Every structure is written in C-alpha cells, then in structure tokens.
DNA sequence: ATTGACCCTCCAGTTACTGGAAGCCCTACA
DNA sequence: TGTAGGGCTTCCAGTAACTGGAGGGTCAAT
C-alpha cells in the first residue's frame, strides 16, 4: 500500500506518516521504486496513533503505548499509569485555562469597548495604575 | 539599570528579556561596557508583558496590546477585541481538554490496572477489537 | 509524448523560550 | 596587584509535533 492509501484509511496525513517513520514510530518497507510500502498493520498502528494523539498523549507516550499495545506480556497497570499521568496533566491545563478565562471574562465585561481610550484591560495588565 | 535588576523587578527572566529585545518588544539602550541599560519604563513594559503572557496572550497579541497601551489615541474597542478573540480561543481549548478528560477518565476507570494484559484503554485506542 | 496525480528528499518555519559554551566586565578582598 | 565571584555579552542548539514548499522522480492513462 502506498502512503496515500494508508493516509486515507488511517486518517493520518502523509506528512505526519513520514514524520512518524523518521522518529521511528513505524517502519514501513520500501518498494523497488523507492515508495514506502505499508501493510494493514501499519494502518492499524497509525489509526492507534491518531486516536492517542487526539486524546492528547505526547509522542513519547504514544511510543510507550504502542510498545505496550504490541507486548503480549504487558500488565494493564503500565497502561493505566501512563493514562493517569496524562489525565493529571490535562486537569492541570484545564485549571490554568479556567483561571485565565475567569480573569479575562471579568476584564472583557468591564471594558466599554467603545471609541474612548480608557480600558480596564490595559489597566489590569499595567503595573502602573492608570485612570484611578 | 542592568538586566538582573530589571528581571528581579519585573519578574521576567533575563533570557526572556533578551529574547523580547531580539523580537523587538523592548528596545533598551546600551552602556559603554556593552551592557543593556534599562529604565523604569522598561520594567513597566516587562511586567505588562509578564502579566499578559500569564493570561495566555500570544507574543503577537502582546505586541498589539503594548502598542495600544502606549497609544494615547487608542479606542478601548481595539483592546476588547483582542481580549475577546483570545477568550474564545481559551474556551475552545477548555472544551477540547474537557472532552479528552471525559474520555480518559472513563478509560482509566474501566482499566483494572493490575498484572494482566487486558486493557480497555488499549482496546479503545486500537481500531482492531481486542478481547471481544 | 505528455498530462496529472502520486511519490520522494531536504530545508525551513512554527511558538516562546531555555540551556549551555566561551568569553568580557566589575567589585571586593587578601 | 592578583584573583575569585558574580554578572554581563553573544551565539548555537534544542524543545514538540508537525507543516509548507521546492525540486524532482514515477506511474497510469490519453
């Protein structure tokens, strides 16, 4: 199978597939013409990667997960640990963003948003009290 | 003022200050010995930048906000627009992350996390049904 | 023979810094 | 006066995960 087919079947862009090969996530063979030659298994792996990436796992997490996926002797606790760590990081990000949202929402509400220069948003960002 | 003092007063690391100069956010003079020479105004600007960055504004947003901050003839609607756009992006990120969290939480709960290889997390990531 | 859709490699750019090497400058202290 | 310590300088490289584009082969059909 050529890269275009694999891309369509897995949903992963050709450029990304080449990149994944470059960093050793997948290892397709080559045809005589130099084209990458993929198998069904590659399609599965790429779909796996696509899904893992969509859940926000880093490439390094993906590498680990893929190895566990292929390891008959894995222990599910290994997978769970990776997922839990990632979940914790996501929760941290959410909290950070929510706190930004709170502040920004307040500021946006306070700002008249008209032709006048006075602006509570700038006033808040500025360490120097503006119109006080 | 040298970069160390400015860093302490503004809370922005020296490396970052140099970077901000490189990309034209601030333009300190130079002393005879080649050291950067900062003023109080630079400290204000850097604190402004630090705060804006903490609220998640991109560097380009910061450039715009800083220009507005210094523009006596600004209209607050210009600032508000930047903030609203940014707020929208934050909300999009939050939603994406929350959806990831939902999925991940479910998967983590379903996974036994023991020494056995069966794992709902991998099963979910995999396009091939595993133990069915 | 040529067109168009593939495929290839390699290079550069993205975001916002951060770390490190090599090397001046300045002050204090023995 | 020599030196030790910080602090300052520049420049280079690396981070994460791709993405775009140039320049150029390959393949199938017309």
UniProtKB/TrEMBL annotation, chains A, B:
Lineage: Bacteria, Pseudomonadati, Pseudomonadota, Alphaproteobacteria, Rhodobacterales
InterPro entries (alphabetical): CueR (IPR011789), DNA-bd_dom_put_sf (IPR009061), MerR-type_HTH_dom (IPR000551), MerR_fam (IPR047057)
Subcellular compartments: Cytoplasm
Alphabetical UniProt keywords: Coiled coil, Cytoplasm, DNA-binding, Plasmid, Transcription, Transcription regulation
Domain HTH merR-type: 1-68
Protein name according to UniProt: Cu(I)-responsive transcriptional regulator
Entry GO terms, CC: cytoplasm
A Pfam family per the record: MerR_1
GO BP term, example: positive regulation of DNA-templated transcription
A single GO molecular function term of this UniProt record: DNA binding
